[in-house]
């Protein structure tokens, strides 16, 4: 298979003899975009790789529950976002830091990441993203970086389109304010 065709892949998933081949196509198709979505949430390359692997493991284990009512990407994004939220909540709980200390810890993680190669403006932008509440950060990341439609976000997050538009608007305003104060 050279090009990804969702209908063909879903049909192959139903065939036990070709299920692994179909799932490999899914992994190849979505790994990079899921990695970057996860990475924007957890910042660390190693954590993002682990969570990406967990996402695909959960998808494989729960393949029988995938109903082709939604697109494969929607289902995978939902799994990945749940993995991120669980990971971030566990991190907060085990570190027993206040929310401000957790944000500072995330900024330190960003600044010490050897894989981050952005300039100072990019670093400030990433710090601005860290000031957003989790939900706004997720919505902003999906809209800004993935250019995802609100309808698709609504399916993934189970939130109304109006609420998503409001979250995105508020996130943009907060980022603009942060950057104006820093520059």
TrEMBL record:
<dbReference type="InterPro" id="IPR013324">
    <property type="entry name" value="RNA_pol_sigma_r3/r4-like"/>
</dbReference>
<dbReference type="InterPro" id="IPR013249">
    <property type="entry name" value="RNA_pol_sigma70_r4_t2"/>
</dbReference>
<dbReference type="GO" id="GO:0006352">
    <property type="term" value="P:DNA-templated transcription initiation"/>
</dbReference>
<dbReference type="InterPro" id="IPR036388">
    <property type="entry name" value="WH-like_DNA-bd_sf"/>
</dbReference>
<feature type="domain" description="RNA polymerase sigma factor 70 region 4 type 2">
    <location>
        <begin position="123"/>
        <end position="175"/>
    </location>
</feature>
<keyword id="KW-0805">Transcription regulation</keyword>
<protein>
    <submittedName>
        <fullName>RNA polymerase sigma factor</fullName>
    </submittedName>
</protein>
<dbReference type="Pfam" id="PF04542">
    <property type="entry name" value="Sigma70_r2"/>
</dbReference>
<dbReference type="Pfam" id="PF08281">
    <property type="entry name" value="Sigma70_r4_2"/>
</dbReference>
<dbReference type="InterPro" id="IPR014284">
    <property type="entry name" value="RNA_pol_sigma-70_dom"/>
</dbReference>
<keyword id="KW-0731">Sigma factor</keyword>
<dbReference type="InterPro" id="IPR013325">
    <property type="entry name" value="RNA_pol_sigma_r2"/>
</dbReference>
<dbReference type="GO" id="GO:0016987">
    <property type="term" value="F:sigma factor activity"/>
</dbReference>
<dbReference type="InterPro" id="IPR007627">
    <property type="entry name" value="RNA_pol_sigma70_r2"/>
</dbReference>
<dbReference type="InterPro" id="IPR039425">
    <property type="entry name" value="RNA_pol_sigma-70-like"/>
</dbReference>
<comment type="similarity">
    <text>Belongs to the sigma-70 factor family. ECF subfamily.</text>
</comment>
<keyword id="KW-0804">Transcription</keyword>
<dbReference type="GO" id="GO:0003677">
    <property type="term" value="F:DNA binding"/>
</dbReference>
<feature type="domain" description="RNA polymerase sigma-70 region 2">
    <location>
        <begin position="27"/>
        <end position="93"/>
    </location>
</feature>
């Amino acid at each position: 298979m050279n090009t990804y065709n969702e209908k063909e892949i879903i049909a192959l998933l139903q065939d036990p003899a070709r299920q692994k081949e179909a799932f490999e196509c899914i992994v190849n198709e979505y790994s990079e975009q899921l990695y970057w979505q996860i990475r924007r949430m957890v910042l660390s390359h190693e954590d993002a790789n682990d969570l990406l692997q967990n996402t695909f493991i959960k998808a494989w284990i729960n393949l029988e529950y995938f109903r082709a009512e939604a697109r494969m990407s929607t289902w995978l994004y939902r799994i990945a976002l749940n993995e991120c939220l669980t990971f971030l909540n566990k991190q907060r709980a085990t570190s027993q830091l206040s929310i401000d200390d957790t944000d500072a810890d995330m900024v330190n993680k960003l600044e010490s990441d050897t894989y981050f190669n952005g300039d100072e403006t990019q670093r400030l932008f990433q710090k601005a993203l860290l000031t957003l509440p989790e939900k706004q950060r997720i919505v902003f990341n999906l809209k800004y970086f993935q250019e995802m439609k609100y309808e698709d976000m609504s399916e993934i997050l189970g939130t109304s389109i109006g609420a998503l538009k409001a979250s995105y608007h508020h996130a943009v305003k907060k980022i603009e304010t942060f950057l104006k104060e820093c520059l």
